[in-house]
Amino acid sequence: MSKQNQASAAAELPVARAPRRERGRQRVESLLDAAAALFAENGFEATTMTAIAQRAGASIGSLYQFFPTRQLLADALRSRFEQHVGEALTRLAEDCRCRTPEGLAAGLVELMKGLREERTAALALVDPNDPRDAHRLQIRNLMRTRIAALIRQAVPETDADTAAQRAVLTLHLLKLVHQLPHEEAPAVLEDALRDWLARAFVQPPQTGRLRD
Amino acid sequence: MSKQNQASAAAELPVARAPRRERGRQRVESLLDAAAALFAENGFEATTMTAIAQRAGASIGSLYQFFPTRQLLADALRSRFEQHVGEALTRLAEDCRCRTPEGLAAGLVELMKGLREERTAALALVDPNDPRDAHRLQIRNLMRTRIAALIRQAVPETDADTAAQRAVLTLHLLKLVHQLPHEEAPAVLEDALRDWLARAFVQPPQTGRLRD
Amino acid sequence: MSKQNQASAAAELPVARAPRRERGRQRVESLLDAAAALFAENGFEATTMTAIAQRAGASIGSLYQFFPTRQLLADALRSRFEQHVGEALTRLAEDCRCRTPEGLAAGLVELMKGLREERTAALALVDPNDPRDAHRLQIRNLMRTRIAALIRQAVPETDADTAAQRAVLTLHLLKLVHQLPHEEAPAVLEDALRDWLARAFVQPPQTGRLRD
Amino acid sequence: MSKQNQASAAAELPVARAPRRERGRQRVESLLDAAAALFAENGFEATTMTAIAQRAGASIGSLYQFFPTRQLLADALRSRFEQHVGEALTRLAEDCRCRTPEGLAAGLVELMKGLREERTAALALVDPNDPRDAHRLQIRNLMRTRIAALIRQAVPETDADTAAQRAVLTLHLLKLVHQLPHEEAPAVLEDALRDWLARAFVQPPQTGRLRD
DNA sequence: TATGAATGAGAATTCATTCAT
DNA sequence: GATGAATGAATTCTCATTCAT
């Protein structure tokens, strides 16, 4: 009863505490890694805090020191994912290979492959009841915008609108990266994908505009 | 149709008991409906047996009468889904509208929309660690085969191989049914989808073969 | 996340479930007894659910079957206390000894002694931050009203207002029942208390009106 | 509470460490203040060491520097309360207003009001299982003795025994200070209380001796 | 068969206390 | 001394499953 009073007075929602020491920073990092791996493997509901702590080589108390709630851990993971996406795109933009459609296609496929586990984890954290999930939309916009910029870098004569449309298609195609490996002959398919992409940068799709 | 391989070793594997009377059949049906709804809403792990029984207006004991295990309930649900898919396809095949590509396209989109919730529930039951999940593959094959047949019915000059390929693409396109509604202007997009489908039945995609 | 959605949709506040079978009724009774004893001994915060279940000879699951929350258990306890108070007062009113001031005094002292543990437990459940606690006021009013009636029964010439005032004083004096035993010579003091009470029914206190 | 008993056997009982410097003294003071406030608000069990440190603007490590145990902190708080009571009484004794019964009554009421929070905190630290708690008795005796002296100072013709008796009654009346404010018209009641007190110093209660 | 109750392992979370820097 | 991190036993609460009537 008294706890609730405190809460009503200050509405002390739990927040992930930021580490202040180097040791803490490392701990948080490894906890996030462990969580990402387990969420990706088993989904959000099936992943226990105990398992996360164990996998990270931390005590359960240590985990709760930084993430007072499983949901908060999930949120942190999604933020980190967004940050990683941004960083990877920045790195890609600085890579000179990206000046050609083929190079850009290869770079994007590589980027997606590198984000595979983290993306799976992040998807496991989406509330399936809420398709307009704010964070999800945010990452989508981030990618669309940045990819459009990359396309204009690789194919300078593209105007802004066209680039935006092609970015949407590109993103859809890129999602296939995560479905192909389940199939036979992934290498061949990956080649095909790179090919489609490279073409998509310069030539509009014939079937009309695809959104989402 | 489905054979349970596991049955070989164990002495007394629990099996979903079949109801003896009409009343029992109805109860089982409503239990499955409740389970489908809840699995679709909250996922497998987050759905409790108590909640299922409650939603079905049954007691927990009654639920366990028919489904001695949560997993067994999930299995029954997947089987029922497969059965429903089969029935829906049969019904579609008998619908004379399907003699034209446009009619078939419309029919398939309708079919997918009708299976929406059940499909979501079934997907929630897939072990994400096992992408080769037997049951999943079985349903996929069922759909591919049946859709190929429908295509040949609507476009009689198609040969078997071509029909098979187009069925694969068709299936991919059909999955979009479940993504579009989240977007703006669903009606417009649904039209577009029907259009793409109708074309896919007669004309191969230019960008190469898509698998899975 | 899905759980919260459910909650937001139906605001499913947990409620103490009422037993539907005889066995359950007994269980609930013994759980409440155990809880009363432990709350009285150790206070609300220091009493664990495990300890309550153990003392009642029930499993922890059984406890939670009926009281999904410790707070709910506390609430049920307070309700039961109020009910017991009411019943005890009714019984006292029907006791013919109460037709005289002395008899009434003795009866009230007896009544208080019988409620001792339960009262201690109930007091341990009051949120000390909230002096206007609704339940507490309710019991106080119940007692004031009923005692006033008893006084008019014992001393018929008393008018309603006077009886009400004397009931307030009576209640204050009665609280001493629970402090005296800690002192030396409880029997002597109990006699004195009975004496004061009997006098309080007929004669106003000289020092002015005491409220609360 | 049983755990704390075990400690009696151990070799090195932790003791509250005394601060060496002025800065330390201030820190200890603010820690005690924070603890008093929180114990008073939420009770002993519900108050966490972390919360205390936070409220005092200190780190948890710092808190443990001075109070190696929560119990030790509680003990220190009770000692400080006793000390404050003594100081307040000394100050009161030196106040010339106390030469008259009315002045003394006012002074005592004032004194009680000033100790309100600290008293609430101290009460929250009493083990409810042990009504003969040593510390509690000690404070009670301190107050009885000092108040008796004050009474003889205000009403010089009182003999020692009578003064002692009246001190007991005075103390009981003074406890009302902490109950009255919850009622309607606190100012009026406070006046009445002062009045009763002033009379109690010179005139014996008619109803007999009240103890405790 | 139907139904409510019983069970207990397991999960999330808390918190006093200890450590290392 | 001061500070943040580490620890893990203890606590609340959940839920699949089994029992008894």
UniProtKB/TrEMBL annotation, chains A, B, C, D:
Gene3D superfamilies: Tetracycline Repressor, domain 2 (1.10.357.10)
Sequence ranges assigned to domain HTH tetR-type in this UniProt record: 25-85
Identification of the protein by name: TetR/AcrR family transcriptional regulator
Family annotation (SUPFAM superfamilies): Homeodomain-like (SSF46689)
A Pfam match: TetR_N
InterPro entries, per the entry: Homeodomain-like_sf, HTH-type_TetR-like_transc_reg, HTH_TetR
Region (Disordered), start-end ranges: 1-24
Keyword Ribosomal protein carried by entry: no
Start-end of DNA-binding region: 48-67
Sorted UniProt keywords: DNA-binding, Transcription, Transcription regulation
Organism in which the protein naturally occurs: Uliginosibacterium paludis
PANTHER family: HTH-TYPE TRANSCRIPTIONAL REGULATOR BETI, HTH-TYPE TRANSCRIPTIONAL REGULATOR RUTR
